[in-house]
Design goal:
signal; 4 strands; single chain; alpha+beta
Length: about 120
Amino acid sequence: MKHSASISVVFLLVLAHLAVATAACAAAAMDGAANYLVYVDRHPPGVDCQQYQLGILAAALGSEEKAKAAILYNYKNVMSGFSTRLTPSELEAVKKQPQVNRVLPSVTLSLMSSKFDGVS
């Protein structure tokens, strides 16, 4: 019984994630820009991680100033990448950069309850 309950919880979490992602995409369509997580290749040895990532975004957006204004956060420990706010045309330009591996909409998920299988 616990196994099927765990599967149900996972299924509900996936559905909630999809609902939030869909809402984020709809909001992006209205104002034209949305936040994204951009996964990139690891920076080369001896190169500053933030400068490397800024260079990738600057190449896509056309200037370092635009890249600095668009970048929200840099990630370097668990993954190599950054979060950024992009319009649809900027998103397509970022996806075309050779160092970019994957781009995903940034979403925030919240727990609906603090209780899980009787544990709080």
